Amino acid sequence: MRAHALLGLAGLALAASCAAGPTEVRAPHREADSGAPHAKDAGAADGSAEAVPRVDPLPTLEALASGAVRTAPAMRELARRELDVPQEATRIDLLMASVDTCVRVRVVGAVPLRASLETAPGAALADAPPGVDVTLAERGPVCVRRGDRVTLVLAPREPGRVRFVAWVAP
């Protein structure tokens, strides 16, 4: 009976420790230095200040494309690109529709930008106010007729890096 009670208590202790969740495991602190600079404490070129690791503020193209379930359900990916845009408007031809087609685009930029979809210069299909994360045709995809050209127009306030993903249906 006593052994049975001890086994029960041991099982209860094991269950309680598992329910507490994972514990943090830390790497041991290294006292000895190999002489090589570490990424976090590698100073500036003149050794005057610590270098700050550079972090890309933009979501990756993969992260943008993975948002298709939310942003562009039932649509297929047409294009994904990363580019540096100058301050003047940049025009990117997305497609020449071979059938009636619907389009939606998500654009993220390192600097605020104005983005639009056009069928011809000045003929806007979708437009969005300036921002660093813009979805064109936010309330639903915009559609064009067979033979129409769809162009993405990007106009940042200053030069910067931009990433976009475009989806179409059918």
How would you summarize this macromolecular structure in one to three sentences?
This protein has helices at residues 2-19, 61-66, 68-71, and strands spanning 76-85, 90-96, 101-120, 123-136, 142-144, 149-156, 160-169. By secondary structure, the protein is α+β, with helices and mostly antiparallel strands.
Mean pLDDT: 77
What global shape is seen?
Answer: globular
In terms of structural class, how would the helical and strand content be classed? Answer: alpha+beta
Name given to the CATH architecture of the domain at 61-169: Sandwich
Order of helices and strands: HHHEEEEEEE
Distance N to C terminus: 71 Å
Sheet-strand content, in percent, reads 35-45%
Q: How many extended strands?
A: 7
* CATH class label of the domain at 61-169: Mainly Beta
- CATH topology (level 3) name of the domain at 61-169: Jelly Rolls
The number of distinct helices, counting runs of at least 4 residues, comes to 3
Portion in helices: 10-25%
Radius of gyration: 26 Å
Largest sheet descriptor: 7 strands, antiparallel
Query: Which stretches are poorly predicted, pLDDT < 50 over at least 5 residues?
Result: 3-7, 9-44
